[in-house]
Amino acid sequence: MIAYALTFAIACFALALLLNLIRLATAKTPGDRILAVDTMVINVIGLIVLYGIKTASGLNFEAAILFAMTGFVSTVAFAKFLLRGNIIE
Amino acid sequence: MILEVLISATLIIGGAFALIGSYGLLRLKDPFQRLHAPTKGSTLGVGAVLLASALAHLSRGQGASWHEILVTLFIFLTAPLTALFLARVHLHRAAPRRDLPAPATSTRWASADLTLENPQPERESL
Amino acid sequence: MRRLFPHPYLTIALVVLWMLLVNRLALGSLVMALILGTAIPLITARWWPGTPPVARPMALIGYIALVIWDVIIANIQVAKIVLFMPTSQIKSAWITVPLDLTSPEAITLLAGTITMTPGTLTADIASDGKSLLIHSLHAPDPDAIRDDIKARYETRLKRIFDE
């Protein structure tokens, strides 16, 4: 039963990534693009965790943590750049 | 058996919420409306998947796994900050300012201080 | 004691974080966590001017539980709106919430809570820091949402931070 649920969840996250990609391509403002990329990062973290469940290994968590951190920092850096025109003041 | 049902349920809920969050991102019309869907939907989706991962680890008899808590904590702490920054980008760039309500006591909102002529506001609010 | 641990909360947070990162309960890891938890606050003490004024840490736990419950409710509501409501019928509104809280930590916590809970999102703060600008996804009655935020979250935070 877990195998079916796992397949369903992976399909959902993959479809979500595809929708984000469409949003990224059709967005009109830079703010929307950043939001689409940020959502992609969150969905990729979900996919990494799901892969970890599938392979029954804990090794993927370092990757998930790193992804969460770099995703957050890059989103804030992008937003800062749009707000101020520079990142480090 | 109960654990198995619980893991499956959280997996399905998580996948569904993540999909709804991304679908909302595509469907909603206003830039500020679009901010709502991913900050709530996708964050809870990943949170549910992480819970499922912790339960799966438990069900395999390998003891408790604490990494999930760390990732969940991080995602739930950073989601509001990301939303706030993106809201300010929208306020700064795209949204028309005239339909904003006035603050209770001050005369203007902090992002209105951030103009290209005056890039350093008097009081750093974030 | 005060000189060795200038920021007790930071020390506890660092120890817990390191133990979560190591992912197993071993004595060696705990020693390493304690070394880090002592050294990092000492080295960075110059950049942390004051401790967060949490008066009732136990009430904070109850508050977090309430917020987690509200996050789940929030998601079901937002999901309903996203999936079933025609986009032309979604009435978004801007809401001004006047703040009674004064400390930056309390305001940050309130802003984060508002973003994670039903259909609302913190967008900005006033220049004088005395009101928050909130965007609501679907608000037939904006005043009710403002009163709900003040009654449900701000009074609890006022008690926690003793203001």
Give a structural overview.
The complex is a heterotrimer of chains A (about 90), B (about 130) and C (about 160). By secondary structure, chain A is mostly helical. Chain A has a single domain, classed as Helix Hairpins (Orthogonal Bundle), CATH 1.10.287. Helices cover about 85% and strands about 0% of the residues of chain A. The model of chain B is unreliable at about 115-125 (pLDDT under 50). Chain B is built from 3 helices and no strands. In chain B, about 55% of the residues are buried. In chain B, helix 1 packs antiparallel against helix 2 (about 30-60) and helix 2 packs antiparallel against helix 3 (about 65-95). Chain C has 2 domains: about 10-45, no CATH class; about 55-160, Alpha-Beta Plaits. Helix content of chain C is about 60%, strand content about 10%. A 3-stranded antiparallel sheet of chain C has the order 1-3-2, covered by helices on one side. In chain C, a hairpin with a 5-residue loop joins strand 2 and strand 3. Classes of the chains: A mainly alpha (about 90), B mainly alpha (about 130), C mainly alpha (about 160). The interface between A and B is large, with 51 and 54 residues.
Instruction: Please identify the structural class of chain C as seen in this structure.
Output: mainly alpha
Low-confidence stretches of chain C at least 5 residues in length (pLDDT < 50)?
A: none
Give the biggest sheet of chain C: 3 strands, antiparallel
Taken as a percent bin, the fraction of beta residues of chain B is under 5%
Instruction: Determine the fraction of residues in helical runs of chain B and give it as a percent range.
Output: 55-70%
CATH class identity of the largest domain in chain C? Alpha Beta
Give the N-terminus to C-terminus distance of chain B in angstroms: 48 Å
Question: Count of helical segments of chain B?
Answer: 3
Inertia-based shape of chain B: elongated
**What is the strand tally of chain C?**
3
Individual helix count of chain C: 5
Tally of distinct domains of chain C: 2
Biggest sheet of chain C: strands side by side, in what order? 1-3-2
Q: Label the overall shape of chain C.
A: elongated
How do the helices and strands follow one another from N- to C-terminus of chain B? HHH
Helix content of chain C: 55-70%
Number of strands of chain B: 0
